[in-house]
Every structure is written in structure tokens, then in C-alpha cells.
Amino acid sequence: xxxxxxxFTMSLKQSQFEVDRLENEAKELxxxxxxxxxxxxTFDLNNENSRVFVKGVEVTSENCMGMWFRVAGTVSGKYxxxxxxxxxxxxxxxxxxxxxxxxxxxxxxxxxxxxxxxxxxxxxxxxxxxxxxxxxxxxxxxxxxxxxxxxxxxxIENNIPIVxxxxxxxxDQITNYELRITNFFGWEYPIIAKHEKGYQGKSVRKFDNxxxxxxxxxxxxxxxxxxxxxxxxxxxxxxxxxxxxxxxVIGAMxxxxxxxxxxxxxxxxGAVEKWNLSEDDKNLAEKxxxxxxxxxxxxxxxxxxxxxxxxxxxxxxxxxxxFEKATGINVAKLVVEMFLKKG
Length: 343
Fold this sequence. Notes:
alpha+beta; 3 domains; 12 helices
């Protein structure tokens, strides 16, 4: 029986470029890609032999070499829970090894985390005979949803440099800061605000003065205020997207804002070009992927006027159309090869 790679999306249009590319590259290697929607999942749960089905067919190590999950976020969270349930039931020994290593890494932080490491090691033993590689499994199980605020906590915990950031839950907290400190926290304008679940730069706002901040605060419902990160605006108009695959950087591209647009995202018209990554930035991106438990991810790095690097965020399901265009790197083929190696 030929093994296949199963991809999961919420709709046929979601991540269409990435899934198309994966399918084409897999076909060249004689591998079938089974395009599934999250709603195609079915579970048979019991203590003796729980099973996972996709489109009515049971998923086993005999017919599946791996599963690739694209964005699963819904208001209810039903698909993120379904994704994680599938991972728990089908996980491979690689997941056990990764979590065991993480336990060793965190052991020095204290008795509590040492015990936590032991727990994850045991989880690996439970799942090691399932035999289906689930990309990014440790990251998904550790953080079902990994928004920007949660990421910043992980980065700080692991000494990964971040842009100075503040989070508020009431409007008074912001206005009191403005009254006490000149130029908004002493950062000077402009400043940046971004939604913690934003994507492709669509939720990022730039404020050039206090009046613009006030206008935004008057418009927003206060109960949503705690979903925003307020950040110092770095003077550069470009950033780096670094893709890490199976623990190693495969390349990087520079994204530059064009015209009046201050955001550099390729999807918003940003210019892209290949970038020769320094060893320090390479190590930084690989560290982000490791501590976040990710086999495949995009790490966004921005620099200040002193050429110091700061991690903006990590994207667990990063798109790569602009990356392939800028770098000439065949990301889809490398992803397929990772599944071949793991599955």
C-alpha cells in the first residue's frame, strides 16, 4: 500500500498555493497528497483501540506517512482541538524524543519544570508506536493556539530578543501612561499596535501622535483592548522572513515596505529579495523553532539602527509563495522530503 501525505485546511481555497505546490512536488516523487478539510475528520474513541478517520478511511502508519496542518483557527476552537486529538492518537516516536529533550533543557529551571520534562518523556513512550509523523506536533500540543502575546512570553522565557512591548486591558491604563510619560512610554512616536491574532500584517496600525491613539481608543471596544500589543516602532522599513525546516534554516528573504505603506508583508505589496543570513540570525531562528516545538515555521526578524536583531513572531503555518519567488528555494520539495525522512 502506498503511503500518502494528508494536508488539512478549513477550505479548498485556504493555503491553495502551498498545497498545490506540495501536491506537484510529491507527484514528481511518486507520492500522493490527500487534500482534506478539517471537517473530514472523524474519531472513534475508546480505551482499547481509538481510531482516526479522514473521509471515512482509517488513518494508520500503513497508509499515511504524515499529516501537514494549515491554519485551523475558528471561534469555537473545534478544529484546533480535532487537530490535537489526531496528533495524540497518531503521534510518532520523534515527538517523544523532542519532548524528552525539552524536559532536559528545562530541567535546570527548577523542580517543577524538571518534573514536567519527565511527564513529556513518558508521553513520548505512549505514542511512539503509532507511526504517523504529524508536523509541528509538539508545538501544537504545547500551545493549541499560539498568538503573539503568548509567543512573547515564550521568547522572554528563553532569552530571545523582542521589540519593547506593552499590553493593556483598560483605556485608562494607556491614558495614564500618556499623562505621566512624554511621547508614549518614552518610546517617541510613531508607535505600533497589532492584534495578537492578526495575520499578514492586516491588524498592524501605526500611530504618529497621541490624537491618533485617542481616535483608535474611542473606536475600539475596551473588552478587546487586551488583544493588542503596543510596541516601539523600529526605524527600518524592512524585516526578514526566515524559514526553518526540520530544525535547520533553509533560507531567508528580505521584505521591504513600498511607497506610503509602512508594512513589509508580501501579501500587502512588499518587495521581496533573497537575503544572506548571518550566523547569529540563523542560530536565532533555529532556536525559536526549537523552543516552540516546530518542524516547519517562518520566523520574522527585524533590526534596529544598530543592526541588532529582534524576533517579531513565529508563524507555524507560514506561506511561501513570496519566499520561493525571492530565494529560488523549492520549499515544497523540501517539505515533501521531510515527510519522506520522518514517515
